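Both lines are quoted verbatim for reference:

——
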Amino acid sequence: MIAIYLISAVTLAVLGIAFLICWNAARMNQAALLWGVAHLALAGASYLGYRFQLEGLPLAGLLSTVLTALFLVCLHGATEAMRARPLGLRTLGLRTLGVALLIAVVGFAGDQMAGRLLVMVLMQLTYGATALFLWRMQERLAGAALAFKALSYLLYLAELQAVGTPFQSLHLLWVGWLSNLLLGLVLIDLAIRLAQQRLNNVLKYLPDPLVARNLQGQVVFCNERFAQLAGAASPAALVGQKVPLLAREEMEADAVMHKITAMVQAANLDETIRLERQIEPVQGASFPAELLFSSYTNLGAPVVLCQIRDLSEHKRAEQERLRQANTDPLTGLANRAFLLQQLDAVLWVAQRQGTGCAVLLLDLDHFKKINDSLGHARGDEVLRHMAALLQGQVQEGDLLARVSGDEFVLVLTALAPHSGILQVEARAQALLARLRQHMTEEGGEYPLDASIGIALSHGGALDQGATLLQQAEVAMYEAKGRGRGSWCFFDSTMDTRLAESLRLEAALRLAIAHHELQLHYQPIYAAASGQLAKVEALVRWHNPQLGWVSPARFIPLAEESALILDIGQWVLDEALRQLAQWRTESGSAPVMSINVSARQFAQPGFEERLWSGLQRHGLPPASIELELTETLLVGQDDGVGGLLQRLHTAGVGLSLDDFGTGYSSLSYLAHFRLHTVKIDRSFVMNLQEGSRNHSLVRAIIAMAHSLHLKVVAEGVESAQQRAILQAEGCDFLQGYLLGRPMPLQELRRHPAQLASE
């Protein structure tokens, strides 16, 4: 009898193992896993229950109770997994202990018959709830099998005393075996179909077309996306059909498939084969695609799997990346890297054909003033406008690019060996005429012009594009040195001047670190009293190899680079240090006038560094005066205006340098809070009684005084100039007549009072 009853446990264990095999094939199918665990637990509970009844082993009874509880909990957990509400291990464990405790309390502490009845009821409820859920999911067969299993437990109520013992009747055992077998087969089928459905959903919603074909070219399966490309109503309509790969070159596609088929017949593909082709759908536009071929064996028959990956977005992104890498983002022209690449190709063709080409490098004159005065946004608009003008001058075969901030390059190709230079000159003249502009903005006039450097290649030895571009740049600087608004051809003597300029810049970069910079001071006297009122700090440079370098040489060089910021900060710090020393040793000192460039004044952190320097040296704000240029005032934002207001309120002197040489918009004098204006030396140099300069100086002084501004006249070199300025009411005088720039110790020995005339 015992061997017969063990058949039930073995049957359940086999079903449990079958479920686990299904789960192993599709690890995401948690329902199959829980069904397997549940049936293995029920098999163990059945066997241990028999052992408990036969031998009275308490441990067997306890384990049978726990395994029965595990069966009920796992069966319910499988239902929850199909509802997409999976239970965690902790929840399953706690629920198993809870149900086991309930059964043990009722069955062992109370009546054993009540415990059996409780187990029967719980099994009916669990099977019944699962049957109802599957029925509602349209899984009618599985629902019916579970319902049959739940109803079968009603028969057990007739022999409740024999349930779980070796004394159960055979007809009940047969009902149990058959219901278990039926339920197991149905649930295994359901697990397989759920796994298949999940795979079908993955294939259905896969964005890439996918098709599997046998070696005869017949479709084994495909997804919705491939069916759409092939013009089929559904993937099922293509199964068994011979469908081409939809490549634009159909014959080539067939040849590819023959080759891959031969490779698969020889041996399965070890690595994926990738090909790029243009795909032609039955309906819709063609698109570039990557074809990925692999193979597998289906019941011994080789199958070729092809995935069609749309490369349209990838190609567009690649084209955009190339465009960005080769294009100037501001103007849309070619950039420097792309120009050099194309220029080398052009030079190679010119050398082969015996023709010439010319590289014209155009640099916008006065653009820096526009950028500093009107702001970078307006400067960008000017660059875009100039680029459009240049594009209008491009002819067939020309190359146009923007190579740096305000520099453009035009390459002329296919030039005749002898007459080409005349063509280049004509084009350069036309470009200058087209680019010459006059802008009027915010009350100021801004001339725009260009300087052009030209380097020629005559089609002899192969030239390098980078070399020609460098030569054109050297010629462009030569054109600027000759007065701007012109063009200049490169010649070899220019290399020497370029090398000298580069050496000078390199030496200037080391000047601060090597303590080569010095400050000299030029006295500024009160015109009425003759008292020394101010001194202007002027930077000087003495290099061990170059000797004294004129400020006219190194200041423009510094302004073209960021060196002006480092030099300007050194001048500010050193002037404050020497002023503090002078005041400490003498008890008093004149006002220190310090030049500040527009770039330095607008640099972030300038205000903090200024206050820090004054505080560090114990100097009051009124002890210094900052000399500013008109460039700083024109077109600046509220940040500069706010800083000027704060400095004025704190007592720092503010002087407008070189008045009359810049934009000369009188509205800025009224808008910004200043103390002093300095008449440029160009008005004072030829100052004579009754001259035009005399009238201009009188007007400037009267205008400044009407705005409550003091006036300093620069460049006073004669007694007549001094007398005229004093007669016109000029407040302060400065020039070689009164004292040249000199070191601090020499200045302190200079007269503090001018002798009366």
